Amino acid sequence: MQRILLAYDGGEPARRALDTTVELAKLTGATVAVVSVVPFHPGRIGADPWDSTEDHAQELIDARKTLHERGIEAELLEPIGDPAQRIEEVAEKGDYDTIVIGSRGLSAVGRVLQGSVSGHVATHAKSTVIVAR
């Protein structure tokens, strides 16, 4: 493990993923980057309040602060698009060997209705994926 990509959105599952990332980086000496994808929904008029670039930028700043306090410097990435696909693309293009992502623990119905970013990344990414629960 040399390069870790932490998928972060500020929620409780993402904070668990951040804690896991800290442990892994300290054990292995891996470098860390944090990605927060600003969702883009084609055909939707206007953006949801939680989808703003500013919100994602603040999430990244908060993650960097926490990592810094724990002795880890991180690169911050804020692409726009479908979260699962962008995380996978960033990992592949950036040559990250490990992706750490949180799981919201959706029920089967919730996964069908809302989709599961962690599930999609875990089954489609070319990197090793660690889902923090």
CATH topology: Rossmann fold
Neighbour order of strands in the largest sheet: 4-2-1-6-7
The CATH homologous superfamily corresponds to HUPs
Distance between the termini: 20 Å
What is the strand content?
15-25%
Helix content: 40-55%
Count of folded domains:
1
Poorly predicted residue ranges:
105-114
Derived structural class: alpha/beta
Describe this structure in words.
The strands form two sheets. A five-stranded parallel beta sheet has the order 4-2-1-6-7, sandwiched between helices. It has helices spanning 12-28, 53-69, 83-93, 108-114, 117-124; strands at residues 3-7, 31-35, 38-39, 74-77, 80-81, 98-102, 128-132. It has one domain (3-132): 3-Layer(aba) Sandwich (Rossmann fold), CATH 3.40.50. The chain is of the alpha/beta class. Helices cover 45% and strands 21% of the residues. The two termini are 20 Å apart. It is globular, with a radius of gyration of 14 Å.
Offer a concise description of the structure.
The chain has 133 residues and is α/β, with parallel strands linked by helices.
Question: What descriptive keywords fit this protein?
Answer:
single chain; about 130 residues; alpha/beta; Rossmann fold; five-stranded parallel sheet; two-stranded parallel sheet; 7 strands; about 45% helix; globular
Explain the layout of strands and helices:
Elements: E1 3-7, H1 12-28, E2 31-35, E3 38-39, H2 53-69, E4 74-77, E5 80-81, H3 83-93, E6 98-102, H4 108-114, H5 117-124, E7 128-132
Parallel strand pairs: 1-2, 1-6, 2-4, 3-5, 6-7
Helix pairs in contact: 3-5
